[in-house]
Specification:
Layout: E1 8-9, H1 13-20, H2 35-41, E2 47-52, H3 57-63, H4 68-76, E3 79-82, H5 89-98, H6 102-105, H7 119-125, E4 130-135, H8 139-144, E5 150-154, H9 159-173, E6 177-182, H10 184-192, H11 197-218, E7 223-227, E8 233-237, E9 244-247, E10 257-263
Parallel strand pairs: 1-3, 2-6, 2-7, 4-5, 4-6
Antiparallel strand pairs: 3-10, 7-10, 8-9
Length: 267
């Protein structure tokens, strides 16, 4: 496919979430809220951010026959975001939380200090609550959860357990902001190649989980933003198996361009 052009930057996600609550952007955010999204969402009481790790535009286009739910959302609302450099998960997650450029938030490793205000902190200052659900090894847990009011960790490191925990935390805590990360697409792409049958299968299973989660959240008054942190492209062959493994080292536009779609809050 030819290279599409981005509509906004990944740095606009945190300001847009804050604006949906009628709150100011995190202090170090470099982009204004996405006006298209804000006009559609209006003022929200509850918002969910679902990050499909490595689900770049190129992967979606390759596997869209198996993503009926995401396709349906995109038919209603679709933007393309440009990720940050380097397009690696911890760096992207720090930007998603803060709206800050990597040279400002200075997080490179998942255990680094994030040197910028986050949207989780903006909500807490306004008396609102947030929850993060992530696999034990994930950037959602290691980067985001230190700022959230409620945290649920999928110790099995599976997206199936993560989905169940998302449902539980909403039922038990009803946070104003729920943020989570589904990892299977990235894992499959790294292991087998982003355009392999195994990764396409993972994309289809992730879409089914997304459908269940969006239905549940919509029934509980959440607006839902669905995006990715970065994309992925086919790298060099694995020295052992010869398979072309996936990478996102920033050498191609496929690593940077990610889709954003959303589901409005039910009246």
């Amino acid at each position: 496919m030819s290279q599409p052009q981005p509509d906004y930057s990944l740095t606009a996600v945190a300001p847009t979430i804050a604006a949906a609550f009628g709150l100011p952007a995190p202090k170090e955010a470099v982009s204004p809220p996405m006006d298209t999204v804000c006009a559609s969402l209006g003022r929200c009481e509850r918002v969910a951010l679902i990050v499909l790790d490595a689900f770049g535009v190129a992967l979606w286009e390759h596997a869209r026959r198996l993503t009926p739910h995401f396709n349906g959302l995109a038919e209603q609302h679709l933007l393309r975001l440009e990720s940050v450099s380097p397009p690696v998960t911890p760096v992207c997650f720090a930007t998603l939380a803060s709206g800050a450029a990597p040279q400002v938030h200075q997080l490179r490793d998942r255990r680094d200090e994030l040197r910028a205000q986050t949207v989780f902190q903006v909500l807490r200052d306004a008396g609102l609550t947030s929850a993060v659900v992530g696999q034990d090894r994930s950037s959602a847990r290691l980067v985001w959860s230190r700022f959230a009011d409620y945290v649920r960790v999928a110790g099995s490191n599976t997206d199936d357990e993560l989905l169940d925990l998302c449902l539980q935390v909403v039922e038990q805590r009803n946070p104003n902001l729920l943020a989570t990360q589904l990892l299977d697409i990235d894992d499959a792409g790294h292991a087998h190649g982003p355009f392999s049958a195994r990764t396409v299968e993972a994309i289809g299973l992730t879409d089914a989980r997304l459908a269940r989660l969006c239905s549940f959240l919509g029934g509980r008054g959440y607006a839902v933003l669905v995006t990715a942190d970065h994309g992925q492209h086919e790298g060099g062959p694995d020295p052992t198996t010869g398979a072309k493994r996936g990478t996102h080292n920033g050498s191609t536009w496929q690593d940077f361009l990610v889709p954003l779609t959303w589901q409005v809050q039910a009246p």
